[in-house]
Specification:
alpha+beta, 13-stranded mixed sheet, 3 domains, Jelly Rolls, 542 residues, 8-stranded antiparallel sheet, single chain, globular
């Protein structure tokens, strides 16, 4: 069998689903390394038709794409796909995804060899759907204190489990429709979208008609709401108070399985003190003791202003820091709203040219950010000189990961010692480097963004430390990944002409625009340590 015939036979076996793993890997390698074989492959099958069919088998999931279930073709037409059905389609899908990956890499990166870690498929999002295990959303906070509260973020999805904190307030909006404002110290276990256990703490619940039946288990009773508003205070000794502000609630003895014999009904204006043994004493309703959602909103606004003041103090201190080579606070200018005004070395002013982006609210009221939505949205900047080390710091709100690569800051093209800072479609943070010896390497984290982190403000920092020979990625002030510099890492780092939130390549390229908002970008000419990164995060935390 001639070599050309053998190659065609190998392609046929792969497309028909008959090839072994070794044969499939063999075809993959040949397609990567031999332009003529790729041309033969494209002539051999109608790739355009295959690609046109594939989107029907892909379904979007808030910025991610997963492979959906394939359907058997109803056509009676014979051929590879007609005769081999599902197996042929799966093989075809795998080969096309792999081939497209090869073509994209070669279009973007020229004739460089592709390192092992950049094999085709690495940038394809995880297959399958994403399960939502949440039952509520954390929508407001004020003054939270406690060991676990540092990981709580407004907008995050809350799954069943224990929530305990020492002080402060939070608001939970349950999937079933109930809204609960809880005040610490508290220890509350969330069971599902309509049931919680209050071991101790103070809470106020608003239960509209669609959420009727929302239940709270206390040490000596179960409260079932019938479409109303009530307050509950459970002390650490198990003594509880129930206050009904509107509508009515039902009380049942603990562990009675809602026995009708133990049922008691309280209406608007009623209040009870209930001992741990179930003994009840009438009490006076005290609405003011239980924080409403509106009052919490006012308290949260006050907290936001305190944080804004803290951030502005940090900004002033960094203006005198000689290590800062560029600081863009993303505050809208009163006179030049199409310029991004920043601070450069030695108190100089630097400007970025805004293209397409729109101004929006930032981390707090009275703080602005830039919103990137369209493929052309970007900010053009120039940072001269070369650097032995760099630290990037930014606040971002990711609204979607619909591109294979989502730019944070990228040098034009991808020249020697150029830097590409971006988020991949799988949610990982990546620092891509093209070294002076033409070798390329991506220093990336495990996935840090997923469907449930979208819409939240997140602080990202990446430190390129030549002295220690490592790259460190930080997320919300904590190290996410430490990676050793490659042995071939060589030369000083360049930023030069660059783009925030997009990429200005040479000629046509795949879309790499950021989808979301950016509120602050700082570039240091030195490697910051973990404490300094943490300080920036704490001062700017919304």
């Amino acid at each position: 069998m001639s070599s050309s015939t053998a190659q065609l036979e190998l392609m046929r076996r792969c497309l028909d689903g008959e090839a072994s793993d070794d044969e499939f890997a063999q075809l993959e390698q040949r397609l990567r390394n031999d332009t003529e074989i790729r041309k033969t492959y494209l002539r051999y099958v109608n790739v355009d038709s295959a690609l046109a069919a594939l989107p029907k088998r892909f379904h979007p999931s808030a910025g991610y794409f997963g492979l959906g279930p394939c359907q058997h073709s109803q056509t009676t037409e014979r051929g590879w796909f007609g005769s081999h059905g599902l197996t042929g389609w799966i093989a075809m899908s795998a080969v096309v995804v792999m081939l497209v990956g090869v073509l994209i890499h070669q279009t973007v990166d020229g004739n460089r060899s592709v390192p092992q870690h950049e094999r085709a498929g690495q940038d394809v999002a995880p297959l399958g759907g994403i399960n939502d295990t949440g039952v509520a959303v954390l929508t407001r906070v004020a003054g939270l204190e406690g060991a676990t509260t540092k990981d709580w973020r407004v907008g995050q999805t809350v799954s069943p489990g224990l929530m305990a904190w020492d002080a402060g307030l939070m608001q939970l909006e349950f999937y079933g429709g109930a809204t609960v404002v809880a005040e610490g110290p508290a220890r509350i276990e969330i069971l599902d979208e309509s049931r919680i256990v209050c071991q101790w703490g103070r809470l106020r619940a608003h239960v509209p008609e669609p959420a009727r039946g929302f239940a709270v288990l206390a040490p000596s009773f179960e409260l079932v709401d019938l479409g109303t508003e009530f307050g509950l205070n459970v002390l650490d000794d198990g003594v509880s108070e129930v206050h009904v502000f509107d509508g009515k609630v039902e009380l049942y003895d603990a562990e009675s399985n809602r026995s009708p014999a133990s049922r008691r009904e309280l209406r608007a204006g009623d209040a009870l003190t209930i001992d741990r043994d179930g003994t009840t004493t009438p009490a006076t309703v005290r609405d003011i003791d239980f924080v409403t959602s509106d009052r919490l909103s006012t308290m949260a606004d006050h907290h936001h202003q305190e944080q804004l003041h803290s951030w502005r103090a940090l900004r002033e201190s960094l203006q005198d820091d000689p290590r800062v080579i560029a600081y863009f606070p993303f505050e809208k200018s009163d006179t030049e709203d199409r310029l991004l005004i920043g601070d450069g070395v030695g108190g100089t002013t630097i400007e970025g040219a805004i293209v397409g982006c729109e101004w929006a609210q930032g981390r707090w009221p009275n703080k602005s950010s830039l919103q990137f939505k369209r493929p052309g949205d970007r900010v053009r900047i120039t940072i001269p000189d070369d650097f032995e080390a760099l630290t990037y710091s930014t606040w971002v709100r990711v609204d979607g990961l619909d591109r294979t690569r989502n730019s944070l800051l990228m040098t034009d093209g991808f020249g020697k010692n150029g830097i590409h800072w971006q988020i991949r479609q799988d949610g990982s943070l990546t620092l891509g480097m093209r070294y002076a010896n033409e070798r390329v390497h991506n220093y990336h984290t495990r996935p840090i963004f997923n469907l449930f982190r979208l819409g939240q403000w997140v602080h990202l920092a990446t430190v390129y430390d030549t002295g220690k020979g490592q790259v460190t990625h930080y997320v919300n002030g904590e190290p996410a990944e430490r990676l050793q510099l490659q042995p071939f890492a060589d030369g000083e780092l360049k930023i030069g002409n660059s783009t925030i939130g997009n990429w200005s390549g040479r000629g046509a390229s795949d879309v790499r625009s950021f989808n979301g908002s950016i509120d602050e970008l700082i570039i240091f000419s030195q490697a910051l340590d973990g404490q300094e990164v943490r300080r920036i995060y704490e001062a700017g935390r919304p």
